[in-house]
Design a protein that fits this description.
The structure is a homotetramer.
Chain A: E1 5-9, H1 13-22, E2 27-32, H2 35-47, E3 51-56, H3 62-75, E4 78-83, H4 94-112, E5 116-125, H5 129-132, H6 138-146, H7 149-152, H8 166-190, E6 194-200, H9 206-212, H10 217-226, H11 235-246, E7 257-260, H12 264-271
Parallel strand pairs in A: 1-2, 1-4, 2-3, 4-5, 5-6, 6-7
Helix pairs in contact in A: 1-11, 3-4, 4-8, 6-8
């Protein structure tokens, strides 16, 4: 009997919540940049009865991402690929944001697009920040969507000096994630697999709390108060959407993004002249 | 014991499929413009054991929409509101498209936004056609989002003469649906309810078949062949997404759109220079 | 790309409803004893965009069941096997009930237990009638559970003359279905697949209506009135439970039965001295 | 806007996993006998963004259970009631098992049966141990099902001296839980609410690990190896089944038990002469 594999990249709050959803029927391959976070998540998930293989990964470099994909394929049919790894603008400078949040997603889409099983599905955790990005001319969108990952950071529009601050780079990267997922849908489809993204709003994770505690905290709280849900999201909200998008009921959904933000983007858009 | 109410406007292929999903625990209020379609759907759903109240409605006029909302509220707490009524560009001229597909959605959002129960949810069936719309300047987007329904068709951008053909008006209306849903999210949230849209791709309904049989059929088939799923969608695909968005697992999703198109928009976008 | 196969045996009300749930991501292999029912269901499902292969089957004989399993395996990995075929006591005499409702299930479990894919799942539609059966001594339970299908009807306890009427034989067969599913769980597990049953209550299908129109109708209505749900079930109620049991969220559920009867058995049991 | 309430009694591994599923759209009322367990679970769930009210409860006495139900009703419409509190036979002597696992469930069913909201649902976590119980004569079943909670432990069959050891009392209590849930279905139905139980197999919780480490551990491991799933369950497996049974898709399921044991009972039954 061959057990299928579910890969969860990024073992923080959302990664663990999603791992619990896809874990019971799978061999979990959990990856993170931080050995400490990885060890803690692996211990917790193993303790809860999941079958877990752990592997460190730096998503901003092709070699470790390719090694992770190879490891996944060696464990069995790769049914689910969930990419939650990301740096927050309150945690990192512009170049790191671009390396992890922009290039990292591109590398994962490329490498796992070559090992995902027929009937499998991938999911990238983007951010509502990408929905606040004003958009780009079509030609630049195409560059972000289609430039091979290895050349992505060499694009003029991806030059670190082009960004005023980490927040701007973050919104750009998360906007680009959606373009990248959209473009990857065709290649993943050729293998009989799907790929989508979720754009979370403010979620109660350590990263979310760091953002609420930053200089942007007051603005974020105003946005939450004005929103439909009037609350922060929980990892469980994201995990529920992830389970739906990765599961058989979503077999006609690919190449798109689902905004799970409690209506925050809607509220801000409605209030913006 | 008070049974909750699920309203399904538009009793065609998708409407029936969604009614079956939300029906078992609810009192179904099913509405359609066509008495014949309404009678057939009511007979079928009743035959399958659902509790159904039927009411004719012309969604392009406030009075019948308000009467439908009043009827819904009189039957019990209005838990679900599903708006599937729409005209296809192969069925109708520009003014009818604007009246039903643009104004109709606006009226339903306004009237049902005043009767939906706390914890309830609404869903508008838009179309992937709206995702092919090139977008509008922010000021015009705001007009489409926020102009009271009764004045909507008086906006210069909504003038029938501004549209080359029904297809153009249809894409415009479906694009506007998303703006309208986004803007309605705040008002619905004030009642503790959510509102979202689904943008279906080519679905195997009578309307979908009519489109495949039209002059646009060859283009649609090419798009399907290039897409991730390489198939037309089924009413069940849309119903599954509807069930998710209307249900408790989606409580942090509001004011947004979910594209359920088999990756067709992604494929076309990737192929477009 | 290999598409997985979902087999639906019995193309009546419940079979169609379940086919719609498992159909979108699968190649549907639909089977029925009646060419007329099969043609109608195939036409309807194809019309709704599902990919359907139809095959006639007499589930009371090994050869056609084996041929159906072979056909399934030839179409792709057999992910789902749903057995809804059955005769109602108001439709058939004792020998036919035993042949279809008892032997038929045993044959399907044996033949499809040899072709189901790893990660796949099977589902047998039994009946709440089996829950009203008083039970049997352990030795007879073991006979019903473990006797090879080909010898099943030769057991003394399965002799047609042992049953007062079709209703008694029906309850016996449906009780035996659960024992059979329970016993099959180990063999299916050896292939990495699961197998369960659902015991529906009174469902609004043609068969359910026939029963409500029979001499047992008054008793059934009293039972419904006394039950938790105070309504007949819909095919959608059964389809929702089927989707859950066949899906990844139920990966730790096997060899058991789920009663989906609106609390009718509970009500009758509570009222019985 | 009135937010609905989800009550989770027992804040251990399963309680927390279920709380995460029902929590996002609800006000969680979490209760436990241990202040330490309660504090830890409350901190964790609050940290994940859930709205939590905590209350200590001793489920073996009416007063605190009634106080908990009153608190629930004061917070809003009581949509979900999940009873996971229980003592394991490796943790407690016979009288404690009977007080918590037998009487506790009876009290919760009575008290919350008077506050659950229309459309709400309850869930009792029983155990596969109840499925290994050989059954009782009908008259004793009726006593266990229908005797008012306050008199339950005074029944001769519930006398502590009647049980050889804690394990026997545990199986008896868990068997009785199902009878009790079945009988409660009518009363809950009169309020428009449902009630069911789940019987988990060996689950990777601290309680499950304690059992695997006990004198019964070897037998349990043999059972797991012989089972369909060949693994211990995870809290997520139970939470997924709980979410299904508590949700709208299960509106026709009441007064019954769902065995979530990886096929362990089926394996043991098949191997038992």
């Amino acid at each position: 009997m061959t057990q299928h594999v579910a890969v969860v990249i990024g073992a923080g709050g959302m990664g663990q919540a999603i791992a619990r959803r896809v874990g019971p029927s799978a061999h979990l391959l959990v990856a993170d940049h931080s050995q400490e976070v990885l060890d803690a998540a692996t211990a917790q998930l193993t303790d809860e009865g999941h079958q877990v293989t752990a592997q460190r990964v730096d998503v901003s470099a092709r070699k470790p991402v390719a090694a992770l994909a190879e490891q996944a394929a060696s464990l069995g049919p790769v049914q689910s690929v969930v990419h939650t790894a990301g740096l927050s603008p309150v945690q990192a400078p512009v170049p790191a944001i671009l390396a992890v949040d922009l290039l990292g997603v591109a590398l994962v889409l490329e490498e796992f697009g070559e090992v995902v099983a027929p009937g499998g599905a991938g999911l990238v955790i983007a951010s509502m920040a990408g929905h606040f990005h004003p958009g780009l001319p079509r030609e630049q969108e195409r560059q972000l969507a289609a430039t091979p990952a290895d050349e992505l950071l060499s694009l003029p529009i991806c030059d670190a000096s082009a960004f005023a601050d980490s927040g701007t780079a973050y919104a750009f990267a998360k906007y680009a994630n959606r373009l990248r997922v959209q473009a990857a849908s065709t290649a993943w489809g050729a293998r009989g697999a799907r790929i989508n993204s979720i754009s979370p709003g403010v979620i109660a994770t350590p990263m979310g709390r760091a953002e609420l505690g930053s200089e942007h905290g007051d603005g974020m709280r105003m946005m939450i108060d004005a929103s439909n849900a009037k609350r922060t999201g929980t990892p469980a909200d994201i995990a529920a959407a992830a389970e739906f998008l990765l599961g058989p009921a979503a077999s006609f959904i690919s190449g798109t993004d689902l905004l799970v933000d409690g209506g925050a983007v809607a509220a801000v858009t409605s209030l913006t002249p």
